[in-house]
Amino acid sequence: MDAPPPVPGARLLFSLDPAVVHLNHGAFGAVPVPVQRAQQRLRDEMDANPVRFFTRGLGERLAHGRRHLASFLGADPDHTTLVTNTTTAVAVVLASLDLAAGDEIVTTDHGYGAVDLAVARACTRTGAKHVVAPVPLLATDDEIVAAVTATVRADRTRLVIVDLVTSPTARVFPAARIVAQLRTRGVPVFVDGAHAPGSLPLDVSALDADFFVGNLHKWAYAPRGTALFTVAAAWVPRIRPLVVSWADAEGFPARHESLGTRDYTGWLAAPAGLFVLRSLGVSRVREHNDALAGYGQRVLAQALHADPNEVPDPGAALPMRVVPLPLRPADPQAAQDFRNHIADRSGIEVSVPFWRGQALLRICAQVYNTAQDYQRLAQALPGLLRGAG
């Protein structure tokens, strides 16, 4: 049950408030200081001569950065584009499907809330139907595959969106198996890999999904607002950006990356994040974070007297874990209120997802965390629960 030894000097790489215990890295990430400085140098360049920055070689610089980032994910850089985040890519695909009444979009009940909202809006606009495949919290890989594929109807399902790493429940789903099974039925699959880059070994090309997106600002140390969106060759001509730009005639991916006066410095600085990760050692960081997250989960489960059989295993090495809380919030806002209660009373940042009417406690582990962070939360949690009623 011992925690892994700290990574020497890792805490100094981050400018996080030392008075706060940061256990929710998976929400917005934390940008290392060297990456912040790289981005600031780019901002200085941009502000020194905006016309030159935006009109002289910006597209080539973006393409160079994209190729570097795509190679880390094992993705084809020519079929990959930089986007702001996962939900941007979801919105692009939904808008490109030409949905109509009778069509169905399938997700699971472990999906990200904003993705569900995007699907709901698309269905309201087009008359399509949102079908949710229920997957138990402790489901095996075989059960996950069966739950998703059983919900699909080849004559109606226009898209299946499945998470590689689930945000509210911290599970690694067998996305490759789902893609392979549904490909034989002619059903396209969008793999939401928001939490995957940096946290899991990735080979996006081998995954062979119709669409894949992954955020680099969570576990790959990139500035916020940096994600890679990969599209299968057959779909490239059909994928349209949400905003038409001057690069529209250039096709994919340039038409998606040219967004007028957007601040591109985060995208350009993203390779510096991979440099930091590689300097620490990619495998070393993953192993440390997985072991520390597992330690935190065990400490918190003990503090809550949780039944070990009801505490989910992520299914693979992962820097996130969840522990069920003895709370039944009335709605997602009540769960958020309890999260704020924890932060305000204890100075500890966590996530409290609302899932199937129950509150879960989601913790993350990053190289700046130590065993004492989870011990502090474990000591405070019983009192916080009593205070919340």
Descriptive overview:
The chain has helices at 25-28, 33-48, 50-55, 58-73, 86-96, 113-126, 141-151, 175-183, 204-207, 254-257, 265-280, 282-303, 332-346, 371-387; strands at 21-22, 80-83, 104-108, 129-133, 157-163, 189-192, 211-215, 227-231, 320-324, 348-349, 354-355, 358-364. The chain has 389 residues and is of the alpha/beta class. The strands form 3 sheets. The protein has a 7-stranded mixed sheet, sandwiched between helices. Strands 9-12-11 form a 3-stranded antiparallel sheet. Strands 1-10 form a two-stranded parallel sheet. Helix 4 (58-73) runs parallel beside helix 11 (265-280) and helix 13 packs across helix 14. The protein is globular, with a radius of gyration of 21 Å. The two termini are 31 Å apart. The mean pLDDT is 96.
Key descriptive features of the protein:
389 residues; seven-stranded mixed sheet; three-stranded antiparallel sheet; 2 domains; 42% helix; Aspartate Aminotransferase, domain 1; alpha/beta; 14 helices; Aspartate Aminotransferase, domain 2; 12 strands
